[in-house]
Amino acid sequence: MEAGSVNVVLDGTQPALALRGLVKRFDAKLAVAGVDLDVPTGSFYGLLGPNGAGKTTCLSMAVGLLRPSQGRAHVLGHDVWTDPVEAKRRLGVLPDSVRMFDRLSGPELLAYQGLLRGMPPAQIDARSRELLDVLGLADAGRTLVVDYSAGMKKKIGLACALLHAPRLLVLDEPFESVDPVAGSLIRDILHRYVEGGGTVIFSSHVMEVVEKICSHVAILADGRIKAVGTLNEVRAGRDLEDVFVQVVGGRVATGEELTWL
Amino acid sequence: MAVIPSRPVSITVFVRLKLRMLGHGLRGERRRVIAFAISLGVGLWLAVTGFVLFGVSGAVRHDIGYLMAAFGGAALVLGWLLLPLLFFGVDETLDPARFALLPLPRRTLAAGMLAGAMVGVPGLATALAMLGLAVAGGLRAGPAGAGVALLGGGLNLLLCIVLSRAVTSGFAAMLRSRRVRDLAGVVIALLAASMGPLQLVISSMVGHASLAPVLRVARVLGWTPLAAGFVAPYDLADGRPLAVPVRLGIVAVTVALLAWWWAVTLESAMLGAAGAPAGSRPVRGGVVRALLPAVLRPVRAGQFAAIAARELRYWSRDPRRRSSLISIIVGGAVVPVALRLTPGHSPGVPLPLAVAFTSVAGAAILANQFGFDGTAYAAHLLAAVPGRVELRGRAAALSVIMVPVLLVIVVAVAVFGDEDGQLVPTLGTAAAMYGASIAVASVLSVLIAYPVPDTRNAFASAGGSASAKGLLAFVGMVVAVVSASPVLAAALVLPGALAWVVLAAGLAWGLGLVLVTTRLVGDELDRRGPELLAAVTLRV
Fold first, then answer.
1. pLDDT under 50 in chain A at which residues?
2. Torsion region of B39: left, alpha or beta (phi above 0 gives left; psi -120 to 50 gives alpha)
3. A149 in reach of chain B (CB within 8 A)
């Protein structure tokens, strides 16, 4: 299936995120080898891929953290690399491989994000209090984020990404190292966000989560999009895991070896 | 099934365990053998030095010998107190947590661990050094003196060991927490940074040759557990034999109290349980108010205030930044003093030049400001913070700390050096140099950033290019001095009547350089944000 042909535009407007021919070369290694992707406004998009497929590299180029060797990225019509201020205003990001300013407390970190985004202080205070309450981080008080558990760090990162009410959320591995309770809380928040007209794209390698919550799916392997479309199109009546394994290729069963097990 | 009846465990088990561990230090991995050999060598060297020093204290003048015994003894005990705090885990063999699963009565465990601690390089080295005390005691007051010295030294050795054990297990839970380890880092930085000033103070004291105040301190020390056991022989020599049991009693009671406290805390140390997380008080008022410190509240709450506030918090909360800040401040205070207080009452370096290092170094700390942030800088990139706001916010935060420090140092050096007349133009020079240094550091920080590894991970290393880039900070300091040289020249040449002109010119020069440079480099930063992020990302 060709990537450009899946312009499933839900409400007739431009895609929330459009990637065109993104390529990233690290010295000799080709990490992302030409990715085209349209994330329709209002969709809940899952970017699937095995470890090392280039998911983080791809998303980093899409949000302006990593300069692509070639290609463009548009957020709601604004080029991330030539019109960064307008693009980034509409964008909320939860990076995975990146540290936070973790020697601030949770509330301080939220206030920091809000002020960096140019929000009025009263609005920052009101929204932060709600976010901290909903995410169950209000009890952490003045504990520094560096002392948070992994799940709490994800939650405060998500709160930071949501604070300025962006129209597009880009989340790198939002469900990694999150316990089931926090996981369903995050899912619920994201659902609410999409119902309110927002768009989410997140990377994951957990099939169950993607199958449960996504409207659209793209499978990335070896720096290329191998399958893309609505969840039902990609599944085509099969199990998503089977499709994934078949598309990515790789060994899933043992043969003659390990008989001593 | 019946539980196997257990024999009481003898203390010698612990001693043999410790001996075996020491023996293993001589075999196995080469690195470990070398480390053990080094510790053995250092221990032997310290033991012999201590022995000689304590021994000599019996042969020199009476009051000097008293000083040596009191201060040497106190230093020894303090060393035993502090070293385990700094290097927790040096003596892992007998980490109480390792015995948690064994059914041992507390008393056996405590006695055994004490005996185990005694058998080891530090314990034996201290014991050897204490023998020097006996020699000195014999020289001062005959065989009785030697006996008292042996008893006092033995008690103090016991005190050393109980103290270090009690400290490690009493604070084991605390030492596992990040806050306390950060604090220990600050203590190390302070100690290291104060080596220079301490040397100055000592040499000036030796020069002025007035022992009376020092002797008074020593006499007080002699009645504390730190030194009581060490000075006991002098009571015999001075004809006050009744004071001997009192002094020894002080040490013995301290040992008993510490041993009791240690036995109590041993159990919690074995569990390795950290207490309730600190500082989980709820936040009152708005979150923005929580972020912005009082100094920044008059500023409009926006990107500039946010960055300045976060930087201010980081200068106190990030251990790497905190220790560089402390060393820079201490160094900045010492250098002008050293330059001005040359021996022989020669005029020394002119005041404006003497504070040049202080002003320039104070801002050069920003030369790799993005390296300290590491990947956290991504948050600024995602929020599209304008480069000039970024650089100015950071400069402002450092200035909130540095400008008062500079002011105090310059005023103090001028006033105590009887150069009040030079104060005003010197302040002008300092302002120009500080501004120039911020400007240069801003350029360096954007163009030549490199990652700074987290201190807590010994395996992370920034590699060779980092140190080469770090050297550029020194080149930058020279450039800063040169670019502020017109003001410096004016301060040195112009007559005193024009002092205020020099001050105004220096302030304008410094501020102007900062504003112009942060604007130019800020625009460059807007263009190369992603490249800067890549430069400060530690590759693993």
1. 1-11
2. alpha
3. no
Write the DSSP assignment of A99-166 as a string of letters.
Answer: ---TTSBHHHHHHHHHHHTT--HHHHHHHHHHHHHHTT-GGGTT-BGGGS-HHHHHHHHHHHHHTT--
DSSP, residue by residue, B214-282? HHHHHHHHTTSTTTHHHHHHHHHHTT-TTHHHHHHHHHHHHHHHHHHHHHHHHHHHHHT---SPTT-PP
**Residue B380 to chain A, least CA–CA distance (Å):** 7
pLDDT digits (tens, 9 = 90+) for B484-505: 888 888 888 877 778 888 889 9
Distance separating alpha carbons of residues A4 and B106, to the nearest angstrom = 74
Tell me how close the Cα of A253 comes to any Cα of chain B, in angstroms. 32
| Residue ranges, chain B, pLDDT below 50 | 1, 88-92, 272-282, 343-345, 456-465
Give B91-99 contacts, CB < 8 A, sequence gap 24+.
Answer: B91/B117, B91/B120, B93/B17, B93/B18, B93/B21, B94/B14, B94/B17, B94/B18, B96/B168, B96/B169, B96/B172, B96/B266, B96/B269, B96/B270, B97/B172, B97/B269, B97/B270, B97/B271, B97/B272, B99/B270
* ipTM of predicted assembly, 2 dp: 0.88
Is A103 in CB contact (< 8 Å) with chain B?
A: yes
